[in-house]
Design brief:
This protein is of the alpha+beta class. It has two domains: 120 residues, no CATH class; 121 residues, no CATH class. The protein is 29% helix and 34% strand. The strands form two sheets. A nine-stranded antiparallel β-sheet has the order 4-5-6-7-1-8-11-10-9, covered by helices on one side. It has a two-stranded antiparallel sheet with strand order 2-3. Helix 1 packs across helix 2.
């Protein structure tokens, strides 16, 4: 997203998944070498410390390593962003609104990939990667009901048939709403998924928008950091386009 003075950004997230897939009992399972299970976390920790990310948090102490479950987090210091999160077969790079810019976030992602390449016993180019994602979570503070919120602030129409609400035992008070859809993309090849959901857990009310561009790596290969850098630029252009077209121009001005 563009850097805005009052950006609604809650968090930007990059996710990379890998693991050798096997079929057992008609179910997909993931297989990792014993060398990766035994040494990857420690090697990543050492490599991260060398480039200034020596503040480590263990998120699943004394628990077995499970595929694609975040187990360790690395920061430059306590509560600092960006941060790196890893587990068996997963790397994420996370950045909150404070300090966000696309160029800085992209540089942090590429730095995380270099740490991964330096620390993983199989190196980046040999990882059986199968999924890559770029996600943006935006939060909009609003106490408006969903129909009014979408009408005033979004370019997506949201309404309920009047006949539904005319039932004698139904009220016209809509207590929750989720709007979700997905669109295929050709560059990069993948799927843009957008979900806008009302959060009723807050007193003043808010809506959360999850905009995710994901690519399955079964059809093409991203074996080099430069390949992933190109994917990131293409994915970000689609993310930016989605943000600027789904949110109404009037509502966007409130972020300036």
């Amino acid at each position: 997203m563009p850097t805005l003075p009052n950006a609604p950004l809650l968090e930007a997230i990059f996710e990379l998944y890998w693991g050798k897939r096997i079929i057992q009992n008609q179910m997909i399972q993931f297989q990792f070498s014993q060398r990766e299970i035994d040494s990857f976390i420690g090697r990543f920790s050492s490599s991260a410390e060398k480039v200034g990310f020596g503040f480590e948090e263990s998120l699943t102490p004394n628990q077995p390593k499970l595929p694609h479950l975040i187990s360790n987090r690395f920061r430059s210091e306590a509560n600092a962003y960006p941060c790196y999160q890893i587990g068996l077969g997963i790397l994420t790079v996370n950045q909150i609104n404070a300090g966000y810019s696309w160029n800085n976030f992209k540089d942090a992602i590429l730095n995380g990939l270099r740490i991964l390449d330096d620390s993983h016993p199989d190196k980046l180019k040999n990882l059986p990667m199968f999924l890559i994602k770029l996600r943006y979570l935006d939060i909009f503070k609003s106490s408006l009901d969903p129909v009014t919120f979408f009408k005033q602030n979004m370019t997506i129409e949201f309404s309920l048939p009047n006949r539904l609400l005319q039932h004698e035992f139904l009220t016209n008070v809509l207590v929750d709403s989720v709007v979700a859809f997905s669109v295929q993309s050709s560059k990069p090849k993948g799927i843009l998924s957008i979900t806008i959901q009302r959060n009723n857990q807050t007193h003043d009310g808010e809506y959360v928008m999850d905009t995710t561009l994901s690519s399955s790596l079964n059809d093409f290969c991203l074996s080099e950091i430069s390949d992933i850098a190109t994917w990131l630029e293409d994915a970000h252009l689609i993310q930016k386009h989605a943000f600027e077209t789904i949110i109404s121009p009037t509502f966007q001005k409130t972020f300036q």
